[in-house]
Each structure stands twice: as structure tokens, then as C-alpha cells.
Amino acid sequence: MAETEPTAVSESKQTLGPVAIAVDGAHVRYKVYEEPKLTARGLFNRAMRGRRSTEVHAVRGVSVEVNVGEAVGIVGSNGSGKSTLLRAIAGLQTLSAGSIQVRGEVGLLGVGAALKPTLSGYRNVMLGGLALGLSKDEVNERLDEVAEFSGLGSAMGRPMNTYSSGMRARLAFSIATLRVPDILLIDEALAVGDKDFRERSLARLDEIREAAGTIVMVTHNLSEIRKTCSRSIWFDQGEIRMDGETEAVLSEYSDER
Ligand SMILES: Nc1ncnc2c1ncn2[C@@H]1O[C@H](COP(=O)(O)OP(=O)(O)OP(=O)(O)O)[C@@H](O)[C@H]1O
């Protein structure tokens, strides 16, 4: 089986062709270990035999292209392979076959964004900004703007482990948009924010798209996709079941559920 790493093609935006992401015959297989049903006998047998190794074929020969400036929504049932594909596009997941080419910088925004729980919101903004390549002065200049956008108020000075999950998501989203990558991948990052924050985040995503950024967004919230994406992809059991205009795809998808 050929192992193909996603490749990053760094070129300036001015020289870009229309394709931002090219996925060609991508497969992802996970090796997983299973144990038998836990009866007393099963427990005994497990101890004696060890666990059984099996394979989950999460992405099955996916080919798709996304153009620069497009905003594409990905829908599909739990376990259909959406997050795996996003991680592969971000270069965080090795393909077992096929290839993925991206033009420019890719940022993956998810609820599991790497924030430091014991540090305050402000300190997390500083660390996140530095990790995104901004200088200390640049982050300092934008600290108030980020605090205001997050709407966290005085909670910005408190340790993040005192935040609710929605507050953490607000902070993660606000930090991630400090520096807009050429390609922004969003995995359910808006799901836990409240209505007011989601609306502001969607407006921010519009600005990103207008700045010629490319967005690929995985969410179970169809209205978010309707607001942001003109094109959508329906993922089903690791394959693309439908790819087209958002309304057409979402209506077929909703009929099926
Ligand atoms: N790290 C992993 N190791 C083993 N199997 C995994 C791993 N991550 C995902 N899988 C499996 O791959 C399949 C696709 O999972 P994935 O998270 O990509 O689905 P998804 O469409 O994003 O689901 P959801 O809508 O629930 O977030 C599932 O069967 C899942 O159990």
C-alpha cells in the first residue's frame, strides 16, 4: 500500500491558479484494537489472548477539488469520515493511498484547539498568536480586539479551566482568526458557541472568504452551512455521496435522514 503524505505547496496568492485543495483518490485506514464483549468469560479470554486488531477504512477513495475563494460545507452522519478528511487536508493525518495537494497555508480550527487550561484567556491569546507567527507587539496591539470579539469580558483574565465549553470555543475561534490562513478548515468549532457568538463568527467567516480565503466547514448545523457555503459535500461511509449547490445537497441529505 502506498503511503502518501499531503504536500504543502507554498506559493504567493498572486501566482495561484484556481485550485486551493486537490484531493486525489485519498484513502485513510485506521488500525484499531477491539476487545470481545465483556462477559466474565470474555475478560478471562482477553487476558489470555490479547486484543484483536482490525481496520477502519474511514476515507475510501475520495477525489475532490476546492477552488481559491470557495466556501464548502461538509455534512454526513457520525463516523462518515468528515473529520478524518479535514485532518488529512491539514496534513495531520497520513493517507494510506492517494494524494492531497494544498496551495498556501492551512489552518484547522476545531473544538480541541491547543489552548493551555491553567493560563488566562489573555495569556492564551498571546501564546496562540505567537504560535500563528505574530510578534509579541502584534498580539499586544490586537489583544483588545480579540477580547472584544470573544465577548468574554472580565473572564479573559481568569484561567481557562474555569470557562464553560462554550467560552472555551469562543476563545479558540477568536485566537484562530487573529491570522487568517489561505485555507481555513473548521471542524464543528462554532457548534458550542451561543447564538450571538455564532452570528458574529459567521460574519467573520464572510470577511475571511471575501479576503480570498478558502473555507471548508464540517458541521451538523445545516443553517450555518446555508449562511456560509454556496457549495456542499455529503459524506457517506467514507465516500462522497453528493457534491453540488448547497440547497440541492442539503435537501437530499435532509430527506434521507
Ligand atoms: N484516531 C482514530 N483511530 C481509529 N479510528 C478512528 C480514529 N478517528 C476516527 N476513527 C474512525 O474513523 C471513522 C470516521 O471518523 P470521523 O471522526 O472522521 O467521522 P466524522 O464524520 O467526522 O464523525 P462525527 O460527525 O461524529 O464527528 C469512524 O468509524 C471512527 O470510529
UniProtKB/TrEMBL annotation:
Domain ABC transporter: 38-257
GO molecular function: ABC-type transporter activity; ATP binding; ATP hydrolysis activity
One cellular component term from this protein's GO annotations in UniProt: membrane
Record carries keyword Nucleotide-binding: yes
Keywords from the named record: ATP-binding, Nucleotide-binding, Transport
Entries under Pfam families matching the protein: ABC_tran (PF00005)
Xref: PANTHER family: TEICHOIC ACIDS EXPORT ATP-BINDING PROTEIN TAGH
Protein family according to the UniProt entry: Belongs to the ABC transporter superfamily.
Name of this chain's protein: Teichoic acid transport system ATP-binding protein
Species annotation: Ilumatobacter fluminis
